[in-house]
Design brief:
single chain; mainly alpha; 8 helices; 76% helix; 0% strand; rod-shaped
């Protein structure tokens, strides 16, 4: 039995693949595409993503929690006014907790400015605050006399250290990757929408395939018959 000529076989294969690709494009629902685009554009108009807002809230919690612990420490060690004057006015690096509070203020200002106001998408700001916090706390724990002042000599440095590294982990593993993924999804949806707009509306499979009883189908059947059973 003879086979179809190679050129005709390649033409049929290419035609089928092109028809399949067109069906794939038309299988995308334009309404769903527009809904997704509007959803992503709505997030852009808000100016800040939900995960970044959560990060900023945690940074604020860092400052408020350290401030609360410091106020409790002031009240425990002889009253707020007397202890505040001793730790702030008569500041002593080896016995004061005031610098730990200032360290929390430093983290808050840098991170809010970088990731809420400027909306940076890089880790350099969080790396700076975490490095400064870690170096300062390690030096203070080694050189100061905080451990001889009761439980707060342990609590404040440890809490500050842990909060700084939680902020680093949250930004590096949650905020930046999730925002990058959402941006990629937006680009994919927009690209699909642009391709959908290039396809003329109202096309159907009937415009690509000849009906079984059409003239083109009869000619193809006759060609297959004559090549398979050549006339003598």
């Amino acid at each position: 039995m003879n086979h179809l000529p190679e050129n005709m076989e390649n033409a049929l294969t290419g035609s089928q693949s092109s028809h399949a690709s067109l069906r794939d494009i038309h299988s995308i629902n334009p309404t769903q595409l527009m809904a997704r685009i509007e959803s992503y554009e709505g997030r852009e108009k808000k100016g800040i993503s939900d995960v970044r807002r959560t990060f900023c809230l945690f940074v604020t919690f860092d400052l408020l929690f350290v401030t609360l612990l410091w106020i409790i420490e002031l009240n425990v060690n002889g009253g707020i006014e007397n202890t505040l004057e001793k730790e702030v006015v008569q500041y002593d690096y080896y016995s004061s907790y005031f610098d730990i509070f200032l360290l929390a203020v430093f983290r808050f200002k840098v991170l809010i400015l970088a990731y809420a106001v400027c909306r940076l998408r890089h880790w350099w700001a969080i790396a700076l605050t975490t490095a400064v916090t870690s170096a300062f706390l390690l030096a203070k724990v080694i050189l100061s006399k905080l451990f001889s002042q009761g439980a707060f000599g342990y609590v404040l440095p440890i809490i500050s250290f842990i909060l700084a590294w939680i902020e680093t982990w949250f930004l590096d593993f949650k905020v930046l990757p999730q925002e990058a993924e959402e941006e990629n999804r937006l680009l994919i949806v927009q690209d699909a929408s642009e391709r959908e707009a290039l396809i003329p509306g109202g096309l159907s499979d009937g415009q690509f395939y000849s009906p079984p009883e059409s003239e083109a189908g009869k000619k193809l059947e006759y060609y297959l018959y004559t090549t398979s059973y050549p006339l003598e």
